[in-house]
Amino acid sequence: MPFSHSFFSSLFSPPPLPPSPSLALAGSNKMSPLSSWCLLLTWLCVVHTHGLTEPKIQEKAFLKALGLSSRPQPSNPRPVPSELWRIFQREWAESGAGAGLCRVSEYGVEGNIIRVLPNLGDCVPGPELEPTPPVCVDEWLYFNLSVLEEVEELTLAQLEVRFQHHSYPAPGSKGASYTLSIHKVLGTGLRGMELSRKLLISQSFQPVHLALLFNLTEAAASWRGGGRNLGLTLQVAGEEAGQMGGEGTEVGAEAGADVGVDVGAELGAWVRVGAAVDVGGGRCAELAQGLKVTLVVVTLNRQQCRASRRRRSVFSLPAVFSHVCQRRRLYLQFRDVGWQHWVIAPQGYMANYCYGECPFPLSDRLNGTNHAILQTLVHSNHPTDTPQPCCVPIRLSPISMLYYDNNDNVVLRHYDDMVVDECGCR
Predict the structure, then answer these.
(1) Angle CA(263)–CA(268)–CA(273) in degrees, nearest 5?
(2) Is residue 169 within 8 Å of residue 175, measured between CB atoms?
(3) C-alpha dist (Å) from residue 77 to 57, 122, 337
(4) Closest CA relative to residue 179, chosen from 129, 134, 118, 220
(5) Which residues, 6 or more positions from 194, have their beta carbon under 8 angstroms from its beta carbon?
(6) What is the pLDDT of residue 188?
(7) What is the pLDDT of residue 42?
(8) pLDDT tens, residue by residue, 298-340
(9) Which end of the chain is more exposed for a tag (fewer CB within 10 A), N or C?
(10) TGF-beta family profile domain location, by residue (predicted)?
């Protein structure tokens, strides 16, 4: 019998769970097929029928599969970047299509997990940098890559430098030019001594509501590979107006330090900064105040990538209720289990479930295996000794989830085996 939303809203209303301490969970997240869907459905069921202990165990197992040590409790939720919303909407529209299960077309790389990491340079101890003219900005950048799981392969680390600039040059005039330099910090040195750092990028630009995009995948990979993460430094120095050449200068001290500029075009449309880019002037102090830096990290968890599948079929209820094994409607709301504070989107989804008998003889539409066919035959002759085969999911499809992790980072994750598409007798 199909279950309505109101039924599940009343059935799955758990008491609030006490905050769990952040625990570092070791080991990989290897999960058998159907595990994701089964864990979530089991958690929903036991919340109502048991006390707190067993639901907490089931919930923790599912959270671990999402790379979370405990239920996130965002204290200062950050706004979701617009590019993540666009990617989420595109992936949600393509859910179950099987195309690009583990590829992020917007960035042109493999991946099924996207994180936007904030600059923590103001929050953790680091070198004290004082800009001196003509340097407008001399800022230490630090990004916490320890939030990545060991099983994740780093495929992209893109530094996004955005400017909130509101001055425009007069038509035909040339605005002020700046030089942006990014160094990798190699050592902090002694007090009063200069930092030991390596130049990665040097780029001339003129800010007019633009974002400079820098591919720092190799630098980030070195930090994950055992190198000490001492962060980066970002310098912006003023130039005389009109001194910018026809081509921006790029110095790639490390391979892969690509440079791009986002001027409002579709995300991932990388172009060289040059004379063709619209330019504008601005004051040094104004530029420093409006600076925002984030690191977009794309990773791939191959354990959650499998072969492509057919597009998810549209759910249709049978005209007459049947006791035979088939897919049944089940809509899950994250609010029902108290997850609405950290799951950003979707608020719920059609998970479905399998229910019904596997009678003898098994028809083709029951998708029975040879073993199931023989088991029904034995059951028909000895019903008390041998049970019928079980009605179970035999084909599932993924969904995308947008949520806050245990460090208040915004994460977009493409997660497999979350929707029952087809049932069968096994």
Answers:
(1) 45
(2) yes
(3) 26, 18, 20
(4) 134
(5) none
(6) 72
(7) 61
(8) 999 988 776 545 545 555 655 556 899 999 999 999 998 889 9
(9) N
(10) 309-426
Whether the bond between 346 and the residue before it is cis, its omega within 30 degrees of 0, is yes
CA 240, 243, 249, 253 torsion-angle sign: negative
Q: Return all residues near 23 (Cβ < 8 A) that are at least 6 apart.
A: 69, 70
Give buried/exposed letters for 343-363 (b at 16+ CB in 10 A, else e). Answer: bbbbebbebbbbebbbbbebe
What pLDDT does 45 receive? 57
Q: What is the pLDDT of residues 164-192, one digit of tens each?
A: 765 445 445 566 788 899 999 988 765 55
The answer to whether 114 and 410 have CB atoms below 8 angstroms apart is no
- For 55-81, write each residue's pLDDT tens digit: 678 788 888 877 888 899 998 888 898
What the block records as the tokens of 172 is 């035909």
Q: Which amino acid is at 253?
A: A
pLDDT in tens, 86-114: 999 988 887 655 455 688 989 999 999 99
Higher pLDDT, 397 or 11: 397
Phi-psi region of 60 (alpha: psi -120 to 50; beta: other; left: phi over 0): alpha
Q: Where are the alpha helices (DSSP H) in 12-112?
A: 35-49, 53-65, 82-93
User: Hey, what amino acid is at 294?
Assistant: T
Beta carbons of 207 and 247 less than 8 angstroms apart = no
> How buried is 241 (Cβ within 10 angstroms: 0-12 exposed, 13-18 middle, 19+ buried)?
middle
Residues 6+ positions from 123 with CB-CB distance below 8 Å: none
pLDDT higher at 421 or 48: 421
Label the pairing between strands 153-163 and 291-300.
antiparallel
Per the CB < 8 A criterion, the answer to whether 405 and 146 are in contact is no
Q: Which amino acid is at 162?
A: R
| 318: preceding bond cis by omega (within 30 degrees) | no
Peptide bond into 19 cis (omega under 30): no
Helix (H) or strand (E) holding 395: strand 391-404
- pLDDT score recorded for residue 245: 36
Q: Tell me, what DSSP letter sits at residue 329? A: -
Neighbour order of strands in the sheet with 196-205: 135-141, 232-238, 178-187, 196-205
CB hemisphere CA count around 165 (13 angstroms): 26
What is the pTM for the complete model shown?
A: 0.73
